[in-house]
Write a structure and sequence with these properties.
Blueprint: H1 2-25, H2 34-46, E1 50-55, E2 66-74, E3 81-87, H3 114-130, E4 136-144, H4 153-160, E5 171-181, E6 185-187, E7 190-193, E8 195-204, E9 208-209, H5 219-236, E10 244-252, E11 259-260, E12 263-272, H6 275-295, E13 299-306, E14 311-313, H7 315-329, E15 334-336, H8 347-350, E16 355-363, H9 385-401
Helix pairs in contact: 1-3, 1-9, 3-9, 5-6, 7-9
Length: 402
């Protein structure tokens, strides 16, 4: 079957590129992917594939911007189902380069490869549909909104029960990466990507003219004292060898050269791989903020927005997917990945069913932008890698339905 899949996808390769470039030219931000999902649904329905759109509701007032498609094999009756997932949303970044297919939406671009993810799942689904007489069961194509923004589109799909009927035995997801050469695949069994929480610190003092400093309570000074204390206290409770990252990337205090402001805000992120440590830090950090601020005459509130949990790759499923990858590209092109402190809302799926999230190499020194990092203005992919990504999705699903 792998040879049939590869042959069908080879015929579809020009469409893979065309789909990806259309989506790349017309990016939409998280939970606003109205035209993106409409375009994907049009391609699927043109092939006669059953699609349900409007899933992934952010609120009750509007339909969601995700879609679920069911591709059914007809060789023999089977109630087995396996899911493959793509994400649809783009990022608030102004694109550089790519004159042939640059973003036409000011300040928005596909800097994380979701356009390619969607094109590859489209290709996998259409190839399987055209080969439906050769296999049995159901492949669920998941086109998910809002991967880049809390509460995470994956969490909404799980809450809506889209996986209840039919119920997949597992789910496969992929992410392009410039750190691997085009034509390579990377896997990791067990915990792979971190749980991610957002930190919002608000420090309040008593503002006024800078010349009257003795009568004031400086929230900037409080925040400046708070940050090193937070780092020290957090690392003191982390077990040896346990990965953890806490970083603050935004500090706002709208004063002036002669004005001490009333309020300073500091925003950051907390990344962990251990739910017990995560809970402990959630209890510790607000208490430290309160103690330091009160000792300096002010107040501090740390609001923690809980994000995606840890991506847990099921060991048995990952081993089977790795075997498929070896069959596709040879053992020399299949590598082990280290844990990553980045987060991925695919994690929600891995907590309700066996999941495997792997990396698709898209770096190519001969093609501009393909070695630029994710979430950068110059990011691009080697589009030749999409053939492998689509084949891995299709062949992996067939492996689970056999």
């Amino acid at each position: 079957m792998i040879d049939l899949v590869k042959r069908e996808l080879a015929a579809l390769q020009p469409k893979l590129v065309a789909w990806r470039r259309h989506l790349h030219r017309h990016p939409e931000l998280s939970f606003r992917e109205h035209n993106t999902v409409r375009y994907v649904v049009e391609q699927l329905r043109a092939e006669g594939i059953d699609v349900r759109d409007g899933v992934g509701r952010l609120n009750a007032e509007a339909p969601g911007t995700g879609a679920i498609a069911l591709v059914k094999g007809t060789r023999s009756p089977s109630d087995r189902c396996f899911a493959v997932r793509a994400d649809l949303d783009a990022l608030p970044i102004t694109e550089e380069g790519k004159p042939d297919y640059c973003s036409t939406t000011p300040g928005v671009m596909h800097a994380c490869g979701h356009d390619a993810h969607s094109a590859m799942v489209l290709g996998a689904g259409i190839a399987l549909h055209r080969l439906r007489e050769q296999w049995s069961g159901t492949v669920m194509l998941v086109f998910q909104p809002g991967e880049e923004k809390e509460p995470g589109g994956a969490s909404l799909l799980v809450k809506e029960g889209v996986f209840n009927d039919p119920r997949p035995t597992g789910i496969l997801g992929q992410h392009v990466t410039p750190e691997l050469a085009s034509g390579m695949l990377g896997f990791r069994s067990g915990p792979f990507m971190a749980a991610a929480d957002e930190l919002y610190l608000t420090v309040k003092g008593r503002g006024g003219h800078a010349g009257s400093r003795p009568r004031l309570v400086d929230p900037i000074l409080i925040a400046a004292n708070l940050l090193p204390r937070l780092y020290d206290e957090a690392h003191a409770v982390v077990p040896a060898g346990e990965p953890m990252v806490m970083s603050f990337g935004r500090f706002i205090a709208n004063g002036a050269t002669n004005i001490i402001p009333e309020v300073a805000t500091v925003d950051g992120t907390l990344r962990t791989f251990n739910e017990e440590l995560r809970a402990r830090l959630h209890a510790l950090l607000p208490r430290v903020c309160d103690e330091v601020a009160q000792a300096m005459g002010g107040t501090a509130e740390l609001r923690i927005v809980k994000g995606s949990p840890v991506v847990k790759n099921d060991p048995a499923l990952t081993a089977r997917m790795r075997a498929v990858a070896v069959e596709l590209v040879g053992a020399e092109n299949v590598v082990d990945m280290d844990i990553r402190m980045g987060a991925e809302d695919f994690a929600y799926y891995t907590h309700v069913m066996p999941g495997c999230f792997y990396r698709l190499g898209t770096g190519n020194p001969s093609k501009p932008g393909t070695q630029s990092g994710l979430h950068t203005a110059a990011f691009d992919i080697d589009e030749d890698a999409m053939l492998l990504g689509a084949a891995m999705m299709a062949a992996g699903a067939l492996k689970e339905l056999a």
